[in-house]
Amino acid sequence: MFFIVWAHKLILLWLGFAEQRLCSVCGQTRQFQLALQYKLFTIYWIFGAVSQKQYFNLCTVCKHGDKVEASQAEAQIQKNPIPFMHRWGLLVGVAAVVLLVVLSAVSS
Ligand SMILES: [Zn+2]
Questions:
Q1: What separation in Å is there between the alpha carbon of 5 and the centre of ligand 1?
Q2: CA 32 from chain center: how many Å?
Q3: What is residue 78's predicted lDDT score, i.e. its pLDDT?
Q4: DSSP code of 4?
C-alpha cells in the first residue's frame, strides 16, 4: 500500500540584530530581534517548500512586534536563513523520483 504523508508548519527563525526598546505588550524595556516567519509545506517531513514568508522585529519575551519590509530585512542579512531542504526539498524529492523512474526504465 502506498500513501503520502504531508504537513503544513509555521516556522519562526531568530536572525539576531538585537536592539533594546520599550515593548508595548510587556510594558518594560526588552530586547527586540529580527525574525523570519514562514509557512513550510513538507512531504514525508523531509521534502519541503516555503509557501509564505514575512520578516518581523519581535520582542524576545512575548514575541510581539512590527512587520519589517522584506527588502529592508534582506539588506541586513547576508544569506538566506531558510535551510536548504525547506527551500528546495520538494524539488529534490521530485528529482529523486524522476531519477528512480529513469534508472528503472533503463535497467529493464
Ligand atoms: Zn514584549
A1: 37
A2: 19
A3: 84
A4: -
Tell me, what's the pLDDT at 7? 94
User: Which residues of the chain register pLDDT less than 70?
Assistant: none
Check residue 97 and give its pLDDT: 93
**Ligand 1 centroid vs 51 CA: distance in angstroms?**
28
**Cell representation of residue 28:** 518594560
Report the separation in Å between the CA atom of 74 and the middle of ligand 1, taken as the mean of its atom positions. 24
Gap from CA of 58 to ligand 1 centroid (Å): 8
For every residue of 37-84, which 3-state class applies, written as one string? Answer: EEEEEEECCCEEEEEEEEEEEEECCCCCEEEECHHHHHHHCCCCCCCH
Residue 64 CA to ligand 1 center (angstroms) comes to 6
Q: What is the pLDDT of residue 31?
A: 96
pLDDT of residue 102: 95
66 bridge partner residues: 57
Give residue 21 CA to ligand 1 midpoint distance, Å.
10
For the entire predicted model, the pTM comes to: 0.83
